[in-house]
Amino acid sequence: MEDAHSKVFSDLQLVYMLKCASKAADENGEFSFASNTPRSTGRKGLPKIQTQDHNKKASDVCHDDSGTPVKATTIDELHSLQRKKSAPTTPIKGTQGAFNAISEEDRQKQQLQSISASLASLMRETGPKLVKGDPARKGEGQQISHHHHYTPTISISDSALKFTHYLYNLSPAELYEHAIKNEKGSFIASSGALATLSGAKTGRSPRDKRVVRDETTEDDLWWGKGSPNIEMDEHTFMVNRERAVDYLNSLDKSNTGKPAFQVFVNDQFLNWDPEHRIKVRIVSARAYHSLFMHNMCIRPTPEELEDFGTPDFTIYNAGQFPCNRYTHHMTSSTSIDINLARKEMVILGTQYAGEMKKGLFGVMHYLMPKRQILSLHSGCNMGKDGDVALFFGLSGTVTLELNRATWSNHLPTDMCLVRSPLDTRFYYKLLLTVLPLVFFVTGTGKTTLSTDHNRYLIGDDEHCWSENGVSNIEGGCYAKCIDLSREKEPDIWNAIKFGTVLENVVFDEHTREVDYMDSSVTENTRAAYPIDYIPNAKIPCVGPHPKNIILLACDAFGVLPPVSKLSLAQTMYHFISGYTALVAGTEDGIKEPQATFSACFGAAFIMMHPTKYAAMLSEKMQKHGATGWLVNTGWSGGSYGSGKRIKLAYTRRIIDAIHSGSLLNANYKKTEVFGLEIPTEIEGVPSEILDPVNTWTDKNAYKDTQLKLAGLFKKNFAVFTDYKIGKNSMLTEEILAAGPNY
Ligand SMILES: Nc1ncnc2c1ncn2[C@@H]1O[C@H](COP(=O)(O)OP(=O)(O)OP(=O)(O)O)[C@@H](O)[C@H]1O
Ligand SMILES: O=C([O-])CC(=O)C(=O)O
Ligand SMILES: [Ca+2]
Ligand SMILES: [Mn+2]
């Protein structure tokens, strides 16, 4: 920007100057400001306000000692000087090849048409007219109407009489302004992050995730008991889609009295592997949602955006608006609906942004295996020598919801927050449960442990493993921030800055300093930031075939060893089991760990049967010689209540030893019951904690607890005994035998 424009006048100064000027005009009759055409005035500074009559003493009328006057006749004009259009970074590509020789105007038109098609009502004769850009800014953008849909014989709706402004791929700064202006609960935290609220839902709602069952998905997907895909029909999908589109087209964000309908549109990518990149469009009502996806998906360059064309998948996020419970299949006010044939997803009744991220992850769990690519709920990082590790682990949010599903299939899906009688924290509570249970939610460590200052971060949550190696699906990270500290997680702490979305955190009213210990809104406080906010992110986020497969479990029973080396069959057994624990307690204060099992460490996102993904994993691990590990990031020295969570610093030393290869050659001994190989020594970790029996004072309690957990593993795995895992039935037998034995 030129120096001229960096000169700032206060509005008061300006009003004063304008007053003087207009007064002068009144007196002279013939007064004008200089033309405002040359916007860029170079290094000369702002031009002076000029009068026609140079003899007239301006000081007679006003005492302007504010320095260089402004080159604008009105405040509106001055404000328009403040913003300039950025020049394209490269010449438009259209002229390079005969096939995409298309003018900028045509390209704009195509984009408008594509978005117009996205936002069109499929049942009404006309949709809204579209205008690109912010209604608050005049003279921007282009219009398009839905004349091709118009049938004059049928009466039209009011929506056809107005314009919908679409705010296309806005920058974080612009989205901040929209959020702060229009969305209650949006504030700038002292770190520069955008603190916001996700409303009544502060976690995902897997019991409200529905998938259209049609001829194709009937055969391709996993349905029925245990499956995360709750079925819906095409017609109901269209009812919800129409509801969402109508809502999105009716958002009047005006505060001037003149209507100003607007939606946000993001066109972005998924998957850093250029061969298997997917184009996604997100249409949303909230700047928060648009910024979240800006951070979480891969951001296209201006050049890539020119060639964007038609998206491969579109999300309609009308989360502030509920679904209609009179609609078939609807069991609550929330519905997240996926239609693979239409390549669309509709969100109603939840503003939790993670639904978009994980909804798309579900879609990838369908699209990628069709191309022989394995999609994984895992973190991923790479050492200086190119050794890649994957970190699998269930998330606390998933655990919570799956438990509810396990306990009773008859419960309504709504949950509420209650304050625990034990301490000041709030907990989720089931409505109308037979046993009133409260939960403590925690993650297993994918984000925390893949974000490692000594290694390159490829991604923290969603990956693909193809013949080319690994690739991150996303362009950002979504870190838990409950109890976050600068000392323990410096890279995540430092990533919370301007541009980052901070969900549901509590901050000081005045200083806007966030209190990460405060779980008043939820335990599941989160930060979403672009991956390049982590200093050693590997861009592009791809890497060679993994060397180590680390399965993380937060064992609140405290009986799993801090680390064990797994055989291939054991890796498969634990991958299919997908164990972690959370803490649930009855209202009279007894707290007990609850085991949860989520196949492939992410049953909520898989689309096909778990054995399909497991078979692919075992094939890839064998082919590329990867070693499996089981790491307990949970309790030691007793179950939740008597023991303590393993120190993050120790877990990090364990992970270091896996990465360096030193653990591969350590001395091992086998545990009873689970039959796990545990090392006797690791640098930086007290040896006595490596075998959990040493840390329990009550050895009988340890044995009982171990047997109890083993029983839960067995019970869970029973449903898989009828399935073959891959083509090799030997492996299936081995996997079945790799579980606990007692
Ligand atoms: N020993 C430990 N190892 C790993 N994490 C620990 C440990 N002790 C405490 N923690 C905390 O546990 C949480 C782990 O959460 P993390 O965000 O890594 O989960 P995740 O596996 O990425 O889940 P999600 O899929 O929901 O994002 C963090 O808040 C971290 O600070
Ligand atoms: O999607 C979310 O809410 C957060 C997450 O990573 C998970 O639950 O696995
Ligand atoms: Ca995570
Ligand atoms: Mn996750």
Automatic annotation (TrEMBL):
Residues 30-68 are annotated as: Disordered. The keyword Phosphoprotein does not apply. It is an enzyme of class 4 (lyase). It is found in: Cytoplasm. It catalyses: oxaloacetate + ATP = phosphoenolpyruvate + ADP + CO2. Pathway: Carbohydrate biosynthesis; gluconeogenesis. Residues 51-66 have a biased composition (Basic and acidic residues). One of its GO terms (biological process) is gluconeogenesis. Transmembrane segments: none annotated. Keywords: ATP-binding, Cytoplasm, Lyase, Nucleotide-binding. Its main location: cytoplasm. Pfam families: PEPCK_ATP. GO terms for cellular component: cytosol. GO terms for molecular function: ATP binding; phosphoenolpyruvate carboxykinase (ATP) activity. InterPro entries: PEP_carboxykinase_ATP (IPR001272), PEP_carboxykinase_C (IPR013035), PEP_carboxykinase_N (IPR008210), PEPCK_ATP_CS (IPR015994). Belongs to the phosphoenolpyruvate carboxykinase (ATP) family. HAMAP family: PEPCK_ATP. This is phosphoenolpyruvate carboxykinase (ATP). It comes from Salix dunnii.
